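Re-run with default settings, no changes from the original entry. Doing this only to confirm the output is reproducible before filing.
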Amino acid sequence: MAVTVLLLFLLAVSAASADKDAFIGVNIGTDLSDMPSPTQVVALLKAQNIRHIRLYDADRAMLLALANTGIQVTISVPNDQLLGIGQSNATAANWVARNVAAHVPTTNITAIAVGSEVLTVLPNAGPVLVSALKFIHSALVAANLDDQIKVSTPHSSSIILDSFPPSQAFFNRSWDPVMVPLLKFLQSTGSYLMLNVYPYYDYMQSNGVIPLDYALFRPLPPNKEAVDANTLLHYTNVFDAIVDAAYFAMSDLNFTNIPLVVLESGWPSKGDSSESDATIDNANTYNSNLIRHVLNNTGTPKHPGIAVSTYIYELYNEDLRPGSVSEKNWGLFNANGVPVYTLHLTGAGTVLANDTTNQTFCVAKDGADKKMLQAALDWACGPGKVDCSALLQGQPCYEPDNVISHSTYAFNAYYQQMAKAPGTCDFKGVATITTTDPSHGSCIFPGSHGRNGTITNGTSLAPSSNTTTSGCSPKYVYGGDLVTSSVIFSVALMTAVFL
C-alpha cells in the first residue's frame, strides 16, 4: 500500500510574487458521506500550507472558517443558480452582497467562477452566461471590490476543436456568439480564461494514440516528442499542448493578451476494470510532475516563462459522486485527512517535498517485455554500476528467481544511487516509479526506510560502455543460468541508453 506519512504539502508562493509566479491550488469538493467540518478542512489546509483553493459554491460556514487565514479563495456560482443571476442584475447584486461583501476582507476572496463547464454541461444557459459575468462584475464594482476579485467561468477543454497540432486549434464555432463577448469581457476587466485540463481523459479516449508517458509528464526522448508542423514547437506533455491549443483558439478570435488559469487538473488513483491506468502510482506521478512543472514557471512552448497557475482536482476523495469508480477517487486525501498517496516532490523548486521520507522506488512495469527487462538488468548491473551481489544465489534478494524480481531490484538500486534524478527510472520504458516499498522478507531494497543508496552525480544518467563495474559483480544467477553481461551485450548494446 502507499506510504501514508503526513504530507507536507507546501504549495505556497509569496504574496509579493503571486502576480508573476505560477501557483498550485486545490479544489475542494463536498460529495463525501463523512465530510469534514469547515474547521477541520481549514486545519488540513493550514497544516499542508495550501494557500490557494477553489470552492464549488460559496458556503457561508466554509467562508467563515477561512477568515483571517490569508488563504486565497475562488468561490463559485453553481450551475443551478446561473439562470437566475444571468437574467437579473438585482439577483446578481444580492448574491455578491451575501456571498462576497459579507466576508471580505476578512476572508481573502480573489476570484468568482460563474458556473462550471456551462457550454458543454448546461448549454441552454449559454445565452445568459456573459450576462451573468457582467452582472456579477457590476455588483463588485458597486462594492469597490472589482480590483481585488476577478470574474470568469471555467470551460471544458472539449470546446477546443482540432486541438493538435495546437496551432490549428479553434473554439467550437457554434459558441462564437458566446465566446467572443466572453473574451471581450475578460480582456476589458483584466481577468483570465479558466480552463479544465484533464490529460487522463485525453489519454483514455485516444485509443492508444497518446502514450501514457506523454500524459504523465514523464521524460521523452526527442524523437518521441510531438511537434507542431506549423510552428515547429515541441511538446513533451499533453497538458502543455492543451493549454497552447487554448491560446491559439483565442488567437483565432483575435484575442492574444488574455492569461489562462487551469482551474481543474488531476489523475484518479483508482478505477474499474476498464480504467487500468487509474492507479495510485499514475496519480502520484501525474500530480507530482504537474506541481513541479507549474512551479518551475517554464510556461508552455507557445508562451515560455508565462505562468499557468493550476488547481489540482481535488482535496478529498468523494465517495458519493455518481459514475465510474474513478469519479470517486481523484483526491489527495481521504475524509479522515490521511493522504491517499505521498507525492514525490523532491526538486520542485521553491516547494518543499511533501514526501519527507522520500519513499519512492523504481520497479519493473507490469507486462514489460522480458527480453527488454533482461537487457536493462544487464546494463544496470554492468555499466550502470549497480551492486547486484544481493541477486546471487544464496543472497537475500535471489528469490524469487525471475527476471521481473531481479530487474526491479537493479532498477531501484540505480534509481536510488542516482539520487532519484529525473529520467533515471525508465530503462527504455520497462520501469516505473512507485511509492510502494518492493522490499520483501530479508531482501531490503535501497531507499527503504531511509536506507538510500550511495548518491552519485545526478547528471551522469548513462554511464558509457567503458565504465568499469566497480563494486558490482559482473556475473549473477537467475533462472538457473549463469548470466555474464559481457556475453549478452554487444558493444552496441553496451553503449545504448536505457534511461
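Residues 1-19, 347-358, 450-499 have pLDDT under 50 and may be disordered. The longest strand covers residues 72-77.
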